[in-house]
Amino acid sequence: MDWARFAQELASMARDLLSQESVDATLERITDSATRLVEGCEAAGILVLHGKKVQTLAPTEELVVLSDQLQERLREGPCFDAAHTKDGERVFRIPDFALDQQKWPSFAPQAHELGVGSMMGFLLYTEDEDLGALNVYSRKRGAFTEASELAGWLLASHAAVAFSSARAHAQMENAVATRHMIGEAMGILMGSHNLTEEQAFDILRRYSQKNNIKLREVAAMICERGGLS
């Protein structure tokens, strides 16, 4: 492992991560970096676990998606363990899926059938019922060494900060857009029905609750139609 080169590329990646224009672009930069910086890595992706529902983000190959779907279907695997174990491991390494089948008796052999030889995972965050993890794969057995694990952990540490920052920025932008849209919808109601701000917002709120529709969606409908009818 050329640690001097690794340090230079990691520093370059860290700068690039914070300059990406969207969450998706940030994640794609992370997984692409994993295939280049982590020795033995042939494919990478970010798994987000919402309770028992799995979402795959920025996969570099279909193998990543299939592995994530397998964990979701079986309700078994390293990411499920990390999500549901208090103070769970932040890093796991599976050297050989053909041999290491005791811990995940259903997931391991089926992952091996998909073509996964070895795998590592790095916890990015845990929030309530949600978990995010960077997973790296190789079709070869024993592809990952202690040096690979250290490189992956360093990459994931930078990725976690960038991921958190990108999500917070996206949430803020979404909140501002939602507030603007609700204000526009209230203005439409106030103008067409001679209502006060409080009365217009109350109409939005009651329609949202009655029809089990998010307030943002009600506002968008009013803006599109010019009213609720």
Automatic annotation (TrEMBL):
Alphabetical UniProt keywords: Kinase, Transcription, Transcription regulation, Transferase
Classification via SUPFAM superfamilies: CheY-like (SSF52172), GAF domain-like (SSF55781)
Keyword Transcription in annotation: yes
GO MF term set: kinase activity; RNA binding
Pfam families xrefs: ANTAR (PF03861), GAF_2 (PF13185)
Keyword DNA-binding included in the entry's annotation: no
Record-linked InterPro entries: ANTAR (IPR005561), CheY-like_superfamily (IPR011006), GAF (IPR003018), GAF-like_dom_sf (IPR029016), GAF_ANTAR (IPR012074), WH-like_DNA-bd_sf (IPR036388)
Domain of life: Bacteria
Domain ANTAR stretches: 162-223
Cross-referenced PROSITE patterns: ANTAR
Annotated protein name in UniProt: GAF and ANTAR domain-containing protein
